[in-house]
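Case study.
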Amino acid sequence: MAWRLMAGHTADAEDVVQETWQRAATRLRGFEWNAALATWLTSILINCTRERRRARPLVRADPAHLSLAPAPIRQPDPVIDLERAIAALPAGYRDVLILHDVEGYTHDEIAALLGIATGTSKSQLFHARRAMRAKLTLPAPEDINHAG
Amino acid sequence: MQDEPLTPHEQADFDRLPREMTPPAALEDRVVAALARTGSIRSHRPAWLLPVAAGFLLLMAGFGAGRLVPTIGSVPPTERYLLLLYGADAASASEEQVRVAEYRAWASVQQQAGRLLVAEKLSDEARVFGPGASAPASGRGPAGFFLIRASTPEEAAAVAASCPHLSYGGTVVVRRVD
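After joint prediction, the assembly is written out as follows.
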């Protein structure tokens, strides 16, 4: 989840996991077990992710950006395309889409995790799915290059 | 606002997304060291900590509500390996493009499998320092590298053996990162 929330940037995702660990260890005594442990940990992870993104805007890490030069031929893979589309979403859309469509949280849970209204979560998901579809229907940059 | 439900095809693609990634051993060590530094744990790592850490990292990596699948203790440790690419048959510009596409497709597969950390092509230009040093002849140094993570030397070797560089007359040298 950290890797996806950080748009595929492995180094930042690992920093976020470390920070999450440290905060969880510090706060574990205050955890009252009236919420699922996974949800509690996810809330810490999300806060760490947001702070990290504010401190350091992301540079996307994705096979398309590897320095092994652009590829003229591209084998379509729905999963890779989907990961790329998710990573390319604005952070607010991406968070809701990952939490709802990938991790299976409800809108009420997402609202609590992100500190937003339930209606906002639904609205963000609506726009996130539209944006994701728009990105999936666009040809990848290497296809454009190849066509040219 | 209208609903924007996923189509069955989209849902199937989401279902295919991997939920768990094996955390690299180096990350576990980093986290444990950070916790020791802040006094959250004793500096002497107790035997139970690694599996618990691995479980926690898996939790962070992939568990969502209703999808808790306890796998604590089943996470294989990973090491980092450097795959150095040497030499390869000469190629025309168009052949080079096809070759690079093949390398990138291979790199994508490794990344999707959670193995690939870094991939870089190196310039032929080299400056060498040290007593009696002389620059290697053009084409003698590594042409590029992949930094991967693997659970065993055999897994790293299998990744290297699948590298398309070999099919173009190149050599791949595998070195574990200490």
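Observations recorded in class. The two ends of chain B are 55 Å apart (CA to CA). The helical segments of chain B are 8-16, 25-37, 49-62, 93-112, 153-161. We will return to this complex in the next lecture.
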